[in-house]
Amino acid sequence: MDYTNSLEFAQQQDINDPLRKFREQFFFPQHGGRDVVYLTGNSLGLQPRTAQDYILDELEDWANFGVEGHFHARKPWMPYHEQFAEPLSRIVGALPPEVVVMNQLTVNLHLLLVSFYRPLKGRFKILCEAKAFPSDQYALESQVKFHGYDPSEAILEVEPRNGEYCIREEDIIALIDKHQDEIALVLIGGVNYYTGQVFDMKKITEAGHSKGALVGFDLAHAAGNIELSLHDWNVDFACWCSYKYLNSGPGGVAGAFIHQKHLASPDLHRFAGWWGHDKASRFRMEKGFIPMPTAEAWQVSNAPIFSMAVHKAALDIFLQTDMSALAKKSVKLTGYLEFIIQEINKSLPSNGKLEIITPVESKRRGCQLSIIAHGRGKELFLKLQESGVISDWREPNVIRCAPVPLYNSFEDVYRFGVLLSQALV
Ligand SMILES: Cc1ncc(COP(=O)(O)O)c(C=O)c1O
Description:
Blueprint: H1 7-16, E1 26-27, E2 30-31, E3 34-35, E4 37-38, E5 47-48, H2 51-65, H3 69-72, H4 85-92, E6 99-101, H5 105-116, E7 125-129, H6 134-146, H7 151-154, E8 155-158, H8 169-178, E9 183-189, H9 201-210, E10 214-218, E11 237-240, E12 255-258, H10 260-263, H11 305-318, H12 323-345, E13 354-356, E14 369-373, H13 378-386, E15 389-390, E16 392-394, E17 398-401, H14 410-424
Parallel strand pairs: 4-15, 7-8, 7-9, 9-10, 10-11
Antiparallel strand pairs: 1-5, 2-3, 6-12, 11-12, 13-14, 14-17, 16-17
The chain binds pyridoxal-5'-phosphate (PLP).
């Protein structure tokens, strides 16, 4: 696509954008009497304007029905979580029974590791990416220790090559091959939080399976950002949060995927709770756990309705479009951000250029670009913030910018360029 660094060009793109109506459905923080340039949907998505009403409905139903709200609320609480399986399955490319909304991301990761990290004598290693999100690192270390292994021996990390930022898939596969008899589990962040790199999940899953390992993904930065086909890729399990691209509020309720092939497995270990028990007999309150025949079997506690109400508000907007339309706009919008940064680079000295460390090919990235401003540190990020840009800073030296196709515009990206140029002076 041919881009132009001008307000007229950006505005024309917005006029032509079939998704432009969605912007109005979100609250934008204000700066100097206008919307901030919000490029942080990869950290916390914006609030849907309908979220308050969805929560108020539940508060009202609680006031009116008390405990009877479980059956008589307008959206009864007892089966409340069930309404997410179908829409979320479309977002992550799954079958509805493979998807459940529950807990928080790291909690779900732990629950899934209980089932899918089953180390045996010789086969006890977990392969993950170096510098995985710290919560994943801690979860993996603690799980390995829980089974009596030493993390320095049991965790294999794939690193980027010297002088590179992204990890090559061929290096992941080579490490799987090298340790083929020892790896019990491959667990990767489907989109790396730091670089924005999208991994070829199908290829990694095939490689892991071909050597007898199970394969799972942390999709915190992937769900609602890129097109996924978890079922068809034969992924064993995955989990994600809802507060980033799924716009469901800080600490919002998270999601999990368990492939159909595992759902009926009677031997699977699980940390069980009553909400995972077969719903037909749950209230007989009898001894002996009978798992639901779906991903709901992994539920431990009853549903957090207020958090789910926001999730419902957010997904009701999300599902007025689909991942393929969002991905199509995302390629153009992130391409425009890349173009604007390269335009700015033309006037910067060779030792002070902006380096985009996210892959260039659109299938290897989602909407996020991670930028290193050589010779400039956090001070540039703070200057941007003062001028009305909300992006985010990740230690040691990266500014992450994510134009989200659901609510960001080409004009946002153009304005970012203007404010970035000013901040660089
Ligand atoms: C890749 C990744 N994994 C895990 C987490 C932790 O999520 P939570 O605090 O919701 O458990 C995050 C949070 O941003 C993340 O980006």
